[in-house]
Design a protein that fits this description.
The chain has about 140 residues and is mainly alpha-helical. Helices cover about 75% and strands about 0% of the residues. The model has no long low-confidence stretch (mean pLDDT about 95).
């Protein structure tokens, strides 16, 4: 595992993280922006302008996930796009989507399944895209 960590292409991690961040902007502002306050139960509140933490936090969290995927790509010896996409799907469907639902199942989220339905495709697509970029730049 240490060898995989030492051979990660950190430029690829940065590029995939930026691409994932851009996907997030398109997803949450363009595609689901109007539905997001509804599933959070805050549609009746005035919309607030996002602060720096709302931008930097998701980027850093994504970068950690992308870096973990890069390490797994190396450790597993993945060299084909088919296998990279399988890993992307496994990370997205196996980790990110269930964690999204797990986080949303609490009293602060009035519609946990709707919240997950809005977020799940983004996480799966982002994971697939990130693994493809990581492989392309390896």
């Amino acid at each position: 595992m240490n060898e995989a960590l030492s051979h990660v292409n950190w430029l690829a991690v940065a590029v995939a993280s930026v691409a994932h961040f851009i996907l997030g902007a398109a997803w949450f502002v363009g595609l689901v922006g109007k539905h997001y306050p509804v599933v959070l139960g805050i549609a009746d509140r005035p919309q607030e302008k996002p602060g720096p933490l709302s931008l930097i936090g998701p980027f850093l969290c994504t970068a950690v996930t992308v870096a973990a995927s890069a390490i797994l790509l190396r450790a597993l010896g993945i060299t084909t796009y088919g296998d990279a996409l399988v890993l992307g799907a496994l990370v997205g469907i196996g980790y990110l989507v269930p964690m999204t639902l797990n986080i949303a199942i609490n009293p602060l989220f009035p519609r946990p399944f709707a919240y997950t339905a809005l977020n799940a495709p983004f996480f799966v697509i982002g994971s697939l895209m990130s693994c493809a970029i990581l492989l392309a730049m390896s």
